[in-house]
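Researcher: Here's the sequence for the chain we discussed earlier.
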Amino acid sequence: MHQTGRSIWIAVRLMIVFTIVLGVVYPMLVTGIGQAFFHSKSNGSMIQNSAGQAVGSNLIGQSFADAQGNPLPQYFQPRPSAVDYDAGISGGSNQGPTNPLLIEAITQRKADIAAFNGVSESDVPPDAVTASGSGLDPDISPAYAAIQVNRVAQARGLSVDQVQALVAKYTTGRDLGFIGEDRVNVVQLNLALNELS
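Model: Thanks. This is the structure I predict for it:
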């Protein structure tokens, strides 16, 4: 009986110590390091407009459509989203490459995007018609941005060169020079277009 009471007391003390160390000290240490050295990233990589208002995040895509879901011609359009860019329920469609519904959706998207941008269907890149795994990808390929330049320039009354310069400015290369692909952050690009206009 004495041994059982001693074991319980040791367990209680260990629980208190580990609760303080892992439940208070460690989270405060990690939070402090994050705020001191990675302030923007630890606060959601927020994007602010010229007035200092948060308008989005570098990490989460947004829809640039009207209330009926029609894409707005004055904005670069992101990849399709299986969750309509709702960050609370991120996820993909879970449809495989042979699923007839996915094939039909891709075929329709390709035709719609080609018509919307005034290009041939063969010019529409794969990321323009396929959703990312999270449904929240903020980036598009430079090829997808390129087919949208003329439409955006015309809708905003800007020169093609001005819009191409902005696309180049918001194009990020491969991580460490070899990981991933070149990409354009649509949220940042559209905010820059708004600021320019």
